[in-house]
């Protein structure tokens, strides 16, 4: 396990993932009933963008950095608000020095009745994550293989919630592991909302992935892809993808409205744009 999210925190992929995560949680709060967020690949929770790692790649400058500098339309501003408010709360001095990873962001949005399970396999990262949530009775941090939690921790006792699957894609076969994990998880907890992240690189097996995803036949499977340039550059990310099962019913239309503008802000070359498609529709 070589991947360290500290090099990438706040980059363009985090912008899309975290903005959508915050939207989904905001939507779950429309009902009083408690829910749980299960974050299977949680990272360390809180990132210092002045760290050697973050400064070395400077990726955050082309992500959250660009968002902060851009003039946003009122529609995009409203869409990003739940995420940006959580970022701002950590940076009362202005700017962005402290960046919330997915568990910290989720936690910032929970109510008293809601819970967070944050899973991380890397022992050093799990230790840091435990420190971030020390004494927080609403959050459980577990050092574990996140793929196992898709069996062991589902369904949550609240019977409502969101499962975020955000692996590093450093191991071979991660796309297939994702399909298998999703098949297992949705058998145990079909009513849950799931958000899965995947990279878009020149050699990503996206056509095969879509085929396998469609073959699962789970109703309400939404695919979201944001490209920062055309998918020919190598190595490195040309785009970022999300698969969302059982999304809030307003999300597809909202993403179609705001993502073209977001793609323009994050563009790093010709071919930037966004694609939102319901891969398997409602039954
Ligand atoms: C992309 S990062 C997570 C970023 C985080 N979700 C966020 O948005 O802030 C992936 C994390 O998964 C961890 N990881 C790698 N393999 C894992 C596994 N099998 N189970 C759980 N965590 C794993 C890595 O150590 C890394 O911290």
TrEMBL record:
One of its GO terms (molecular function) is RNA binding. It is an enzyme of class 2 (transferase). InterPro entries: RlmJ, SAM-dependent_MTases_sf. Its EC number is 2.1.1.266. Keywords: Methyltransferase, RNA-binding, rRNA processing, S-adenosyl-L-methionine, Transferase. Pfam families: RsmJ. GO terms for cellular component: cytosol. S-adenosyl-L-methionine binds at residues 18, 41, 102, 120, 145-146, 166. The record marks 3 as: Interaction with substrate rRNA. The keyword Transmembrane helix does not apply. The keyword Methyltransferase applies. One of its GO terms (biological process) is rRNA base methylation. SUPFAM superfamilies: S-adenosyl-L-methionine-dependent methyltransferases. It comes from the Bacteria. Belongs to the RlmJ family. Specifically methylates the adenine in position 2030 of 23S rRNA. Monomer. HAMAP family: 23SrRNA_methyltr_J (MF_00934). This is Ribosomal RNA large subunit methyltransferase J. The lineage of its organism: Bacteria, Pseudomonadati, Pseudomonadota, Alphaproteobacteria, Hyphomicrobiales.
């Amino acid at each position: 396990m070589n991947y360290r999210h500290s090099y990438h925190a706040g980059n363009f992929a985090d912008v899309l993932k975290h903005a959508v995560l915050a939207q989904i949680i905001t939507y779950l709060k429309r009902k009083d009933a408690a829910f749980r967020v299960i974050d299977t690949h949680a990272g360390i929770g809180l990132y210092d963008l002045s760290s050697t790692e973050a400064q070395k790649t400077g990726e955050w400058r082309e992500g959250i950095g660009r968002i902060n500098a851009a003039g946003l339309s009122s529609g995009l501003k409203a869409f990003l608000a739940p995420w940006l408010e959580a970022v701002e709360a950590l940076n009362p001095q202005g700017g962005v020095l402290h960046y919330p990873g997915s568990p910290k962001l989720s936690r910032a949005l929970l109510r008293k009745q809601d819970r967070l399970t944050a899973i991380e396999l890397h022992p050093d990262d799990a230790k840091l994550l435990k420190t971030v949530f020390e004494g927080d009775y609403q959050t459980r941090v577990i050092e574990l293989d996140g793929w196992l939690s898709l069996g062991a921790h589902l369904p949550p006792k609240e019977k409502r919630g969101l499962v975020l699957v955000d692996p590093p894609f450093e191991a071979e076969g991660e796309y297939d592991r994702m399909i298998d994990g999703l098949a297992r998880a949705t058998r145990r907890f079909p009513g849950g909302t799931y958000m899965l992240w995947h990279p878009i690189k020149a050699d990503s097996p996206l056509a095969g992935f879509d085929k396998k995803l469609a073959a699962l036949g789970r109703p309400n499977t939404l695919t979201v892809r944001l490209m920062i340039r055309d998918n020919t550059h190598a190595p490195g990310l040309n785009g970022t993808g999300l698969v969302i099962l059982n999304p809030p019913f307003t999300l597809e239309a909202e993403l179609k409205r705001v993502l073209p503008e977001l793609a323009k802000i994050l563009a790093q070359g010709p071919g930037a744009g966004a694609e939102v498609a319901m891969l398997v529709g409602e039954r």
